[in-house]
Amino acid sequence: MGKIxxxxxxxxxxxxxxxxxxxxTGHVGWGEASLEGHTQAVEGCLDAWIERYVGFEADDIEHxxxxxxxTTFYRGGPVFMSxxxxxxxxxxxxxxxxxxxxxxxxxxxxVRDKLKVYAWIGGDRPSDVEVQANTRKNQGFKSVKMNGxxxxxxxxxxxxxxxxxxxxxxxxxxxxxxxxDFHGRVHxxxxxxxxKALEPHRPMFIEEPLLSEHIEGxxxxxxxxxxxxxxxxxxxxxxxxxxxxxxxxVDILQPDVSHCGGISEMKRIAxxxxxxxxxxAPHCPLGPIALAACxxxxxxxxxxxxxxMSVGIHYNVGGDITNYIRNPEVWKVTDGYIELLKGPGLGIxxxxxxxxxxxxxxxxxxxxxxxxxxxEIREW
Length: 380
Description:
Low-confidence stretches: none
Strand content: 15-25%
InterPro entries: DgoD-like (IPR034593), Enolase-like_C_sf (IPR036849), Enolase-like_N (IPR029017), Enolase_C-like (IPR029065), Galactonate_deHydtase (IPR023592), Mandel_Rmase/mucon_lact_enz_CS (IPR018110), Mandelate_racemase_C (IPR013342), Mandelate_racemase_N_dom (IPR013341)
Pfam families: MR_MLE_C, MR_MLE_N
GO molecular function: galactonate dehydratase activity; metal ion binding
Protein name: Mandelate racemase/muconate lactonizing enzyme domain-containing protein
Distance between the termini: 46 Å
Helix content: 25-40%
Radius of gyration: 20 Å
CATH architecture of the largest domain: Alpha-Beta Barrel
Keywords: Lyase, Magnesium, Metal-binding
Largest sheet: 9 strands, mixed
CATH superfamily of the largest domain: Enolase-like C-terminal domain
Oligomer: single chain
Shape: globular
């Protein structure tokens, strides 16, 4: 046992927020509380919890999780749950390092030896995906994901969807699988058309065909297509996930470990999904700590399907998942898979000197947006 002696956080490029916890015996754990575009809000939440939780037993991970959830009256949501994720991941890392085992050993042990992975191609305005897909293929990937469309009107020209179909056909011609991310930017009148246009070309999945507040619309789309539907990055707890499982409108759940309350909650969400025959494919366009945390849950989850890796993603300007750690070789992709992380805790070796140096005067990342030809705001 050991009481929490100190909690710190570090804002680092390109858009990440790392958390460090030290107990009174000198054991250390690292977490990630990144929430793209809302860093200052998460930092404010962490400030309050730092003042409160110093002095608590670091081993009591579930107690601290329940304290954070049940004694604050207001609960859930991206800011609250991202801050909680940073603490939760760090506490799991600290405990497992102290015991000298990977975190997945504390989650029941591994059920696989390697993990299927995919990477992003294209950007917010995807164009030449063939070159980028070939690059990923040469890096060892067999699967990729790309945005379905650029900005799109509520009711746009049907021809605006043609490029998406051509991009999928291009990637498939290279012998790769491709997930198509609607990104919540496609509204129902266009989403119905796009999913039907893509269906003959068999995407690996379609992601966020509509925003999560439109569960009935997602259910309707699920009933008209054989394409697997993936979503979940904007669902922040098991209570958020439950109605989608009950509605039978999701095939692949994509919780984000840095947005859903950390390892503790993602493991519970994974178990819920298993009961509904829904696959787990964690969302992770974030940093190395978040990815390592996902890997720990993936290793111990029988319904795990595929893991997103943010290596080289277009948002990573000024930092990548190979930065901030001394063992970047753990992210090597071979034949579409990465090996399980075998070191203690998260299995990555944080370069604290680099974290501290690059956190000085680090700017916050501001979410981009789209403006339509009439001056209207469009979904990003």
